[in-house]
Amino acid sequence: MIKEVSGGPSFEHRRKVRFSDTDCTGRIFFPRYVEWVDEAVSEYLASKGILFDERGGLIVNGSTVDWTVVTGEYWCRMLKPLKLNDQLTIRVWVERIGNSSMTFGGEVLKEGEVAALARITYVCVSTSNLRPVPLPDLLKGVLAAILREGERQGQPLSQGFAEGSRG
To answer: Could you write out the DSSP letters of every residue in 90-148?
Structure first.
């Protein structure tokens, strides 16, 4: 059962369901939900000065760094159907800052109603050998600032669904 938790510092990205998001039956192709949340996370990080370059490396505040992030795990649950041309809001937030990973929660909303919930864990890796490395202080600082922003607003640190709600 999914347990919703309200509040938390979040970022919203808007998009429309495109023809390429659907399968031959006219339904949304399952991986698109996770792609939309991943896209919103990328936009969120870009708004904080963290951008991906054309090779998948990262540029932080205008400087290339020797680490990047890759998807380590994702989870998604669709709750309501979506269709071609639906206008969506994808809301994402920082759920957890680990030693070498970070987890974002997300929800796909249509007309203010949650249509899907998702969670993506990204692992920080070296660009030279793609082996996990500890989250650099620079990235931890950005993530911690996002969480502090929510605390100043009197919001809980995460939203969407509580731990143990994947069943």
So the answer is: EEEEEEEE-SSEEEEEEEEEETTEEEEEEEEEEEEEETTT--B-PPPHHHHHHHHHHHH
